[in-house]
Design brief:
The chain is of the alpha/beta class. α1 (about 45-55) crosses α2, α5 packs antiparallel against α6 (about 160-175) and α6 crosses α7. The protein has helices spanning about 45-55, 70-80, 95-105, 120-130, 145-155, 160-175, 190-200, 215-235, 250-260, 285-295, 315, 345-365, and strands at about 20, 25, 35, 60-65, 85-90, 110, 135-140, 180-185, 205-210, 240, 270-275, 300-305, 320-325, 330-335, 340-345. It folds into two domains: about 5-260, Dihydropteroate synthase-like (TIM Barrel, Alpha-Beta Barrel); about 270-365, Sulfite Reductase Hemoprotein, domain 1 (2-Layer Sandwich). The chain is elongated, with a radius of gyration of 23 Å. Bound molecules: iron/sulfur cluster (SF4). Iron/sulfur cluster (SF4) binds next to α11. Converts 2C-methyl-D-erythritol 2,4-cyclodiphosphate (ME-2,4cPP) into 1-hydroxy-2-methyl-2-(E)-butenyl 4-diphosphate. Its cofactor is [4Fe-4S] cluster. Pathway: Isoprenoid biosynthesis; isopentenyl diphosphate biosynthesis via DXP pathway; isopentenyl diphosphate from 1-deoxy-D-xylulose 5-phosphate: step 5/6.
Length: about 375
């Protein structure tokens, strides 16, 4: 089950300068971390913490929160105290909110230094970030490029995005600050890919990947997988967010599946399920969905299969650590690594599978 080497075997990951977001290293060869963002009102401390925990349980390594005003900033200290994962404060324009977020113990701030006014303000934010060793994420979006850059290129372009990033980076480097990570996002996949590639040629700062306004669960997942997949397959990307117009817990779930399918992340359960065909005599799709959900919290690596027939199931899913294959007449098979271990009543198979998968995952934790 561990024999695949993943996409890194084909194209090595780009060497980047590591930064630390709380206990999570980003870049410098660290595993690619998964990010997501809360949708709650940040002033609702209990609600925000509940959502942060749900996102962490779904696989988020780092969670970002909007900090739009002083009230939101005032809630951060308590949120930091209760969070199970490092947090990023998302700040636009107001350097006082950045200072408040740093003061509250946030583990990273997202802020474009060229947008907060005078050099003096940048200096103050950098000083506070440096004291706490907190990185700054520069976030460039194609839709909000500086007017002069758009005017120069005629419209938003990949080159313009990199130019914008370079400008913001310069503000921090002028202050001697290099705890930086950068995102270059567009809703256009080609532009996102091109911008990240151009950036990667010029800078060694770690990259946070994402496609903006990717869409609802299905279209957003596919679009993100296409765009981020191209970059990841070229060794680019140190952390990522799959942005979805859906329940936020879907974001880390999709991101994890993406990373696992490229062999860039290990741990947790991976489900193989056959598409079913005329050989299948049970309604298997809801079973596969339930199994995936029931195993969603496992930390140890385990590959699980739910297959629609006894004839081909165990063989087709021989790479799975444990699987079930449904047969006719209300019976089916439990198999491990392609070998049949037990014939059971069909209604008992799901529980037997979950139990065995949990045991294996816990052994490997
Ligand atoms: Fe069809 Fe069986 Fe293959 Fe599933 S495992 S697709 S039911 S042949």
């Amino acid at each position: 089950a561990y024999d695949h080497q993943g996409i890194s075997a084909i194209s090595p990951r780009r060497k980047t300068r590591p930064v630390r977001v709380g206990g999570v290293q980003v870049g410098g060869g660290a595993p690619i971390s998964v990010q997501s963002m809360t949708t709650t009102d940040t002033t609702d401390v209990a609600g925000t913490l509940a959502q942060i925990r749900a996102l962490a349980d779904a696989g988020a390594d780092i969670v970002r929160l909007a900090v739009p005003d002083r009230d939101a900033a005032a809630a951060l200290r308590e949120i930091v105290r209760g969070t199970p994962v490092p947090l990023v404060a998302d700040i636009h324009f107001d350097y006082r909110l950045a200072l408040a977020a740093l003061e509250a113990g946030m583990h990273c701030i997202r802020l474009n230094p060229g947008n907060i006014g005078s050099r003096e303000r940048v200096r103050e934010v950098v000083k506070a970030a440096r004291e706490r060793q907190v990185p700054i994420r520069i976030g460039v979006n194609a839709g909000s490029l500086e007017d002069d850059i758009v005017a120069k290129h005629g419209w938003p372009t990949a080159e313009g995005m990199v130019e914008s990033a370079a400008r913001h980076i310069q503000f921090l480097e002028d202050e001697g600050y290099r705890e930086i990570k950068v995102s270059l996002k567009a809703h256009d996949i080609a532009m996102t890919v091109q911008a990240n590639r151009l950036f990667a040629e010029r800078f060694e700062y770690p990259l946070h990947l994402g496609i903006t306004e990717a869409g609802t669960l299905l279209s957003g997942a596919v679009k993100s997988a296409a765009g981020l997949g191209i970059l990841l397959a070229g060794g680019i990307g140190d952390t990522l967010r799959v942005s979805l117009a859906a329940d936020p817990v879907e974001e880390p779930r999709v991101a994890r599946v993406l990373l696992k399918s490229l062999g860039l992340k290990f741990g947790g359960a991976s489900l193989t399920a056959c598409p079913t065909c005329g050989r299948c005599s049970v309604g298997m799709i809801p079973i596969a969905e339930r199994v995936e959900q029931r195993l969603g919290q496992l930390k140890g690596e385990v590959n699980v299969a739910v297959m629609g027939c006894e004839v081909n199931g165990p063989g087709e899913a021989s790479a799975a650590d444990v699987g079930v294959a449904y047969g006719h007449n209300g019976v089916g098979l439990l198999f491990k690594a392609g070998k049949i271990v037990k014939r059971m009543k069909a209604e008992e198979l799901e529980d037997a599978l979950v139990e065995e998968a949990t045991r294996i995952a816990n052994e490997r934790k």
